[in-house]
Write a structure and sequence with these properties.
mainly alpha
Length: about 90
């Protein structure tokens, strides 16, 4: 299996940013994980591996789930810091 290159890893914060933009535009928060997964698959299929759909789907799921984790982790960290009054 081929490794995820640096361009693919750099897409994770892009997906988080686009998801946050959509949330601020009015998309309900419960749909953000689904949107992140769809964006990850879209970017992977059309940018990272345009000729190989199976690889694109796999990398897209990895990108989408990574962005969901980054989004959730950041949100929880800020909520925790507000609770502790830092």
């Amino acid at each position: 299996m081929e490794q995820l290159n640096v361009y693919g890893v750099a897409l994770v914060p892009v997906i988080v940013g686009l998801s946050e933009l959509l949330k601020r535009a009015g998309l309900p928060s419960r749909f953000i994980p689904l949107v992140s997964l769809v964006l990850g698959i879209f970017f992977a299929v059309y940018y990272l591996s345009p000729g190989d759909i199976k690889r694109g789907l796999l990398l897209g799921v990895v990108l989408g789930l990574s962005s969901i984790g980054l989004f959730s982790g950041t949100k929880n960290t800020f909520a925790r810091s507000k609770k502790l009054k830092f």
